[in-house]
Amino acid sequence: MRVLVVDDDPGMGEMLTCFLEVRGDESQVATALDAALEILRAWQPELVLCDGQFPASATLGESPHFTSCLLMVGACQLAGVPILLITGKDCIVEEARSLGLVARLKPIGITELNAAMQEAVAGR
């Protein structure tokens, strides 16, 4: 499966890509909304693993925020690509679930991540 990882934390991005590689998945990482949207358009992933807060542009040096996440959710819905939100904030998980999205709280274990990925893909 082709999986786009969107996270401004390089350590989290690396951990997720290693996990995906072990599963046999292909992955690409974006650290900001502009790069994520370009990869979404050009590479057409089958799933997006998305942090709940990240900047709109890596080059502008702005702070991470939830607005970028919401824009990414909208882009995925328009493209028909399932999205799994993984965040460190309870309030974002609650908000995402109220919107009908699959969301999990960090830290997340491998078993839970596998199950959440399956749930997101099945809910297409």
What does the secondary structure layout of this molecule look like, with pairings?
Elements: E1 2-6, H1 10-23, E2 26-30, H2 33-43, E3 47-51, H3 66-79, E4 83-87, H4 90-98, E5 102-105, H5 110-122
Parallel strand pairs: 1-2, 1-3, 3-4, 4-5
Task: Please tell me about this protein's structure.
This protein has 124 residues and is of the alpha/beta class. The protein has a single domain, classed as 3-Layer(aba) Sandwich (Rossmann fold), CATH 3.40.50. The chain contains five helices and five strands, in the order βαβαβαβαβα. The protein has helices at residues 10-23, 33-43, 66-79, 90-98, 110-122; strands at 2-6, 26-30, 47-51, 83-87, 102-105. It has a five-stranded parallel beta sheet with strand order 2-1-3-4-5, sandwiched between helices. β3, α3 and β4 (83-87) form a beta-alpha-beta unit. α2 runs parallel beside α3. The longest helix is centred in the first third of the chain and has 14 residues, at 10-23. The protein is globular. The two termini are 14 Å apart.
Q: Characteristics of this structure?
A:
single chain; 124 residues; alpha/beta; five-stranded parallel β-sheet; 5 helices
